[in-house]
TrEMBL record:
Protein name: FHA domain-containing protein
SUPFAM superfamilies according to UniProt: SMAD/FHA domain
Ranges where the FHA domain occurs: 130-194
Domain Zinc-ribbon: residue ranges: 3-23
Species whose genome carries this gene: Leifsonia tongyongensis
Length: 201
């Protein structure tokens, strides 16, 4: 017969192990399960469904696209040598959109992308921009929303964020986004994400 705790051989009739002092009826104690103390406000989501609004949006295109731009706390300052006049349109006739954040950042939308505290593209996804905004209170999810351009319009899509996305269009009705659905957003709209917000210009 062997000790159930340390495995040492026990003499016949022994009540305690001579090596570890354990009772012959004792069993090995399993170490306690350690729970990961780190919190997470973002979950991995399945690929989002096709747009649920009227209109056609571009299909995913992974061919040769690079990831991407991350903006932490400083606004993008255009290079004066390559700056366009304020009333000029980019190539293709598309108008430029800028996002002015409550934290002071100003970002020019240059295609599609993700926005949040630490946005991360999921496997198989590719984006032109990743925009990280400052949020000490962590009310904004790591990957809070997705955005993109369709012709001359900007659309937004909540990526199942913890605190949701609320839009306040100029002269319109305030509404909360349904996660996973794309919404066209007009200039002058204020978009609230947790304790932060940005204005679409």
């Amino acid at each position: 017969m062997n000790c159930r705790v340390c495995g040492s051989e026990l003499p016949e009739g022994a009540l305690f192990c001579g090596e570890c002092g354990s009772s012959v009826t004792a069993t090995r104690v399993r170490p306690p399960v350690v729970v990961d103390p780190r919190t997470s406000d973002t979950t991995i989501v399945e690929p989002l469904p096709k747009p649920a609004v009227v209109g056609r949006f571009p299909a995913a295109d992974d061919g040769g696209r690079q990831a991407v731009v991350s903006v932490e706390s400083a606004p993008i300052v255009p290079d004066p040598a390559h700056a366009m006049p304020a009333d000029a349109e980019p190539a293709g006739g598309h108008h430029t959109f800028t996002l002015s954040f409550s934290t002071g950042e100003i970002v020019t939308v240059r295609g599609d992308g993700l926005l949040g505290r630490r946005p991360i593209a999921q496997p198989g996804e590719s984006f032109d921009q990743l925009i990280a905004i400052t949020d000490p209170g962590r009310s904004v999810s790591k990957t809070h929303l997705e955005f993109g351009l369709e012709g001359d319009e900007l659309w937004l899509c909540d990526r199942y964020s913890g605190n949701g996305t609320i839009v306040r269009p100029p002269g319109g009705v305030t509404r909360q986004f349904e996660p996973g659905r794309r919404y066209r957003v007009a200039r002058g709209t204020r978009v609230e994400i947790g304790d932060q917000y940005f204005d679409v210009n």
